[in-house]
Amino acid sequence: MSMTVDRVVDATSGVTRSQLLRYYQAVADLMMPHLEGRPVAFLSAPEDIETGMFFQKHLSNVRLPGVAQFDSSLYASHGPLLEVREPLGVLSAAQANVIEFHTFNTTTHAGEHPDRVSLELDPGDGVDWPSVCEAALRLRDALHALGLDCWLKTSGGRGLHVLVPLAPALHSCEAARHFSEALVQRIAQEEPSRFVATSWPRNRVGRIFIDYLRNGPGATTVAAWSACARPGMPISVPLAWSELPGLRSPSEWTVAHFAERVTIGNTPWEGYWHCRQSLHEVVRQLASDERRTT
After folding, report:
1. pTM (predicted TM-score)
2. SS3 content of the chain, % helix, strand, coil (to 5)
3. What is the distance in angstroms between the CA of the first residue and the CA of the last residue of the chain?
4. How far, in Å, are 5, 24, 164, 188, 251 from residue 129 at the CA level?
5. From 208's CA, which of 59, 74, 153, 289 has a CA 20 to 30 Å away?
6. Is the model's pLDDT at 27 over the cut of 80?
7. What pairing do the DSSP bridges indicate for beta strands 238-239 and 151-154?
């Protein structure tokens, strides 16, 4: 009698395919507020995270239960995009070798108009974790000074994600990207020893790039509770700002060690989905500040 070998997905942690499936079964309900009604892209690994991964925004024939295509008229510039419509979709995608779930900044409520700004603190070589946490607080303070609330999560990589919810249909992707770029450039000009506004690795040594590029049309951000295809299999977890000083690393929670965090769930983001903000006055304020300093 032949036996099916449980394939190892990550050699560093020893996480297997069945462990990954059990993880997604445990968090599928928690993922839905972050996925439902929002275009999704998949990062898949038919073998393991070291071999032959590929990114998909479209499927020619959607045969995953719980996963469907949007009407192409909603996102005419992108073609028929995918949506995870129920927890079963998380599980069926994971069974089809999906490791990471990435979401667009737009939803069905507003077509191609974003309902959030997504910013990632991306540290260069030589930047330690406490410095990344301090940088996140600096970014939060800059957003608060502009009258904008923001929410925090681990990125699943070396950094952190800060998300700013917007009122649907008020802004274009270009406007959101323009705002985020202007904000990042201002922070980098004010503190050039800590921040950089360009993504080139050589410029980022010892400094942090606040990635605003993920606000362009079609850009995506890894979803909260998604596993990440990195050694150790970390997960992206919603955080309260008050937790940041006690966070030991960006990989504190992983596919193998997540149970305690699931009991907290999305509680740190309770106010996120009801927050509706406009960038119009903020953009005018940034432009006015820039004129005063030139």
Report:
1. 0.93
2. 35, 20, 45
3. 77
4. 38, 27, 22, 19, 11
5. 289
6. yes
7. antiparallel
pLDDT in tens, 153-173: 999 999 999 999 999 888 999
Quick check: 3 pLDDT over 80? no
Amino acid at 118: S
The answer to whether 140 and 187 are in contact (CB under 8 A) is no
Using the structure block, give the residue that is written with the tokens 């839905």. Answer: 32
Q: Any idea what the Cα angle at residue 268 is, between residues 142 and 210, rounded to 5°?
A: 35
Cα–Cα distance measured from residue 43 to residue 222, given in angstroms and rounded to the nearest whole number: 10
Helices 17-35 and 87-95: angle between axes, nearest 10 degrees: 140
Q: Which two tokens stand for residue 186?
A: 């201002």
**Residue 70 to residue 8: CA distance in whole angstroms:** 33
Do residues 168 and 107 touch, judged by C-beta distance below 8 A? yes
Secondary structure of residue 10 in the 3-state scheme: strand
Please state, in angstroms and rounded to a whole number, the distance separating the CA atoms of residues 170 and 176: 10
268: Cβ contacts below 8 Å, ≥ 6 apart:
151, 152, 238, 239, 240, 243
What's the mean per-residue pLDDT of the chain?
92
In the chain, beta strands by DSSP E: 8-10, 15-16, 40-44, 54-56, 67-69, 82-84, 98-104, 116-123, 151-154, 160-165, 195-196, 208-211, 220-222, 238-239
CA distance 255 to 253: 7
CA distance 2 to 254: 32
| Cα–Cα dist 283/134, whole Å | 25
